C-alpha cells in the first residue's frame, strides 16, 4: 500500500527501505520486553526527509495544479510522523517503567549500552529518576527511621525477559541452541520462543519481532 | 494486627480504576506504626544483647523487622500506583493543567509531581519536535469534519489560517491543526 504512494518519486528505492527500516524499528520496540538500542540514524534520516517534503509542500500549496499532489504528500508526512511518535512513545513508556535499571545498565555497561538512549532520552530519564526519588523521599522515606530509608534493591523494576515472543529471522541463521534444543532458523519461517535466548539476535539486528 | 492499615491502602486502590482521594490519614498512621515498631525493635535488640540468638528474641526481632518492611513496601506501592494513574491522565488528556475535580483528590506532593512531570515531558516533546501525547490514532484522512461544542470565537490555526469557531457550527479542517482542540473537548469529530 505504501509503495504506491511513492510511485512517482525519483529516489524511490531509498525511501522505501527507509520506511521499512522505520517500521521494523517500531515493531521490534513494541514487542520487545526490554528497551532496545535507539535507532538514531533511521529517526534522523526520516526527520530530514519530513522537513524536506514539508517545505516542498509549503511552496506547492499555493499552486493550484500541484495542490492535489501536495495533499497526498502531506498525508504521507502525517503517517510518517505517526510512526515516529509511536516509536518514541513506546520507548518513553519503557523508560518510565524501568528508569532505574536502564540507568544502571548504562552506567555499568559497555559501548552497546551507551547507545541505548538518545541524548534527549538520557536527559528525560535522569530528570525523571530525580523526580521519582525526590517524591518518595518527601512522602515517605524521610519520615521513617534511618535504617529503613534506602530503597530496596529488589524493588527496582526490571523488564520481564522470560516472556514469549513471535519472531522472524532476517536471513538464514543456521543452528542455534535454545533451551537445550537445537533450532535451525530459516529466513521464511516464524518462530514462537522465549525472548531471553534470542535477545542477542534481536539486539544484533539478525532477528525481527512480529 | 500489624500492617493492617497499609494493606487496606492497597485494597482501597485496587477496588477502583480511577484516582481515589489521597488517604493521608492511613499513610500517617502507617508511618507512626513503622516508628513504633522500630523503637520496639531497637529496644529488644539492645536490652537483650546477650540473648539475641535465642529463638524467643530472634523471632520477635524478625517479625518486627518484616512488618516494617511490609509497611514500607505497601505505602510505596500505593504511592507509585497513584503516580502511574496521574501520568496516565497526563498522557490521555494531553493537558498540562489539572482539572479542579481531580486536583482536590491529590495530595500537595502529587500536584507538585504532576507539574514537574509535565515540565519534563514537555521539554522532551519540544526537543524531538513532536508532541507525543496528542493524536494516538493512526491518521486516515488529512481533513476531518468537526462540530464546535464549546464557543471559541476566532482561532488562528497552526497552518496559519483563521477560522470562526462558533457554537454548533461544523467545519472541515486539517486534522493536525485541531487534534488538541478535539482532545480537550472543544470540538467533536463527526463520523
Keywords:
heterodimer; A: 210 residues; mainly alpha; Methane Monooxygenase Hydroxylase, Chain G, domain 1; Ribosomal Protein L9, domain 1; 2 domains; three-stranded antiparallel β-sheet; two-stranded antiparallel sheet; 7 helices; 5 strands; 58% helix; flat; disordered N terminus; B: 191 residues; 57% helix; 12% strand; nucleus (chain A)
Describe the structure.
The complex is a heterodimer of chains A (210) and B (191). Chain A is mainly alpha-helical and 210 residues long. Helix content of chain A is 58%, strand content 11%. The longest helix of chain A is centred in the middle third of the chain and has 42 residues, at 67-108. Chain B has 191 residues and is mainly alpha-helical. Chain B folds into two domains: 4-128, Methane Monooxygenase Hydroxylase, Chain G, domain 1 (Up-down Bundle), CATH 1.20.58.1030; 143-189. Chain B has helices spanning 4-14, 24-47, 55-93, 100-103, 108-128, 175-183, and strands at residues 143-148, 153-156, 162-165, 170-174, 187-189. Chain B has a three-stranded antiparallel sheet, with helices on one face. The mean pLDDT of chain B is 83. Classes of the chains: A mainly alpha (210), B mainly alpha (191). Chains A and B meet through helix 4 and helix 6 of A and helix 2, helix 3 and helix 5 of B.
Largest interface: chains, residues each: A-B, 34 and 35 residues
Count of helix runs of chain A: 7
What is the global morphology of chain A? Answer: flat
Question: What's the domain count of chain A?
Answer: 2
The CATH topology of the largest domain in chain A is: Methane Monooxygenase Hydroxylase, Chain G, domain 1
Can you tell me the residue ranges of chain B where pLDDT is under 50 for at least 5 consecutive residues?
none
Q: Would you tell me the structural class of the helices and strands of chain A?
A: mainly alpha
**Percent of residues in β-strands of chain A:** 5-15%
Give helix and strand order of chain B, one letter per element, not per position: HHHHHEEEEHE
How many β strands of chain A by DSSP? 5
Mean pLDDT of chain B: 83
How far apart the termini of chain A lie comes to 19 Å
N- and C-termini, Cα separation of chain B: 57 Å
Overall outline of chain B: elongated
> Largest sheet of chain B, if any?
3 strands, antiparallel
What structural class should be given to the helix and strand makeup of chain B? mainly alpha
- Range of helix content of chain A: 55-70%
**CATH architecture type of the largest domain in chain A:** Up-down Bundle
GO cellular component, one term (chain A): GINS complex
Keywords (chain A): DNA replication, Nucleus
Family (chain A): Belongs to the GINS4/SLD5 family.
InterPro entries (chain A): GINS_A (IPR021151), GINS_bundle-like_dom_sf (IPR036224), GINS_Sld5 (IPR008591), SLD5_C (IPR031633), Sld5_GINS_A (IPR038749)
Amino acid at each position: 500500500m505504501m509503495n504506491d504512494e511513492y510511485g512517482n518519486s525519483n529516489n524511490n528505492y531509498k525511501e522505501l527501505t527507509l520506511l521499512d527500516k522505520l517500521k521494523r524499528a517500531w515493531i521490534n520496540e513494541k514487542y520487545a520486553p526490554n528497551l532496545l538500542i535507539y535507532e538514531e540514524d533511521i529517526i534522523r534520516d526520516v526527520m530530514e526527509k519530513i522537513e524536506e517534503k514539508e517545505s516542498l509542500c509549503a511552496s506547492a500549496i499555493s499552486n493550484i495544479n500541484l495542490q492535489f499532489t501536495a495533499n497526498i504528500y502531506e498525508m504521507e508526512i502525517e503517517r510518517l510522523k505517526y510512526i515516529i511518535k509511536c516509536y518514541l512513545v513506546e520507548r518513553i513508556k519503557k523508560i518510565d517503567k524501568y528508569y532505574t535499571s536502564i540507568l544502571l545498565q548504562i552506567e555499568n555497561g559497555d559501548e552497546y549500552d551507551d547507545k541505548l538512549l538518545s541524548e534527549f532520552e538520557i536527559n528525560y530519564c535522569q530528570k525523571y529518576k530525580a523526580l521519582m526519588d525526590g517524591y518518595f523521599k518527601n512522602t515517605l522515606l524521610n519520615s521513617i527511621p534511618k535504617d529503613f530509608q534506602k530503597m530496596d534493591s529488589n524493588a527496582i523494576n526490571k523488564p520481564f525477559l522470560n516472556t514469549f515472543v513471535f519472531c522472524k529471522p532476517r536471513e538464514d541463521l543456521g543452528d542455534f541452541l535454545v533451551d537445550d534444543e537445537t533450532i535451525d532458523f530459516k529466513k521464511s519461517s516464524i518462530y514462537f520462543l522465549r525472548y531471553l535466548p534470542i535477545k542477542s539476535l534481536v539486539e544484533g539486528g539478525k532477528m525481527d519481532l512480529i | 494486627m500489624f500492617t493492617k492499615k497499609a494493606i487496606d491502602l492497597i485494597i482501597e486502590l485496587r477496588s477502583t480504576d480511577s484516582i481515589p482521594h489521597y488517604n493521608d490519614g492511613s499513610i500517617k498512621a502507617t508511618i507512626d506504626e513503622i516508628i513504633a515498631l522500630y523503637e520496639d525493635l531497637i529496644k529488644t535488640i539492645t536490652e537483650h544483647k546477650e540473648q539475641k540468638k535465642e529463638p524467643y528474641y530472634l523471632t520477635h526481632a524478625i517479625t518486627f523487622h518484616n512488618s516494617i518492611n511490609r509497611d514500607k513496601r505497601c505505602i510505596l506501592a500505593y504511592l507509585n500506583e497513584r503516580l502511574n494513574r496521574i501520568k496516565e491522565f497526563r498522557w490521555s488528556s494531553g493537558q498540562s493543567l489539572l482539572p479542579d475535580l481531580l486536583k482536590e483528590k491529590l495530595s500537595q506532593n502529587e500536584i507538585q509531581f504532576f507539574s514537574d512531570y509535565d515540565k519534563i515531558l514537555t521539554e522532551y516533546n519540544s526537543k524531538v519536535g513532536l508532541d507525543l501525547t496528542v493524536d494516538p490514532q493512526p491518521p486516515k484522512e488529512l481533513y476531518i469534519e468537526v462540530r464546535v461544542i464549546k464557543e471559541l470565537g476566532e482561532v488562528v490555526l497552526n497552518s496559519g489560517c483563521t477560522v470562526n469557531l462558533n457554537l454548533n457550527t461544523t467545519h472541515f479542517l486539517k486534522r493536525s491543526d485541531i487534534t488538541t482542540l478535539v482532545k480537550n473537548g472543544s470540538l467533536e469529530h463527526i463520523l
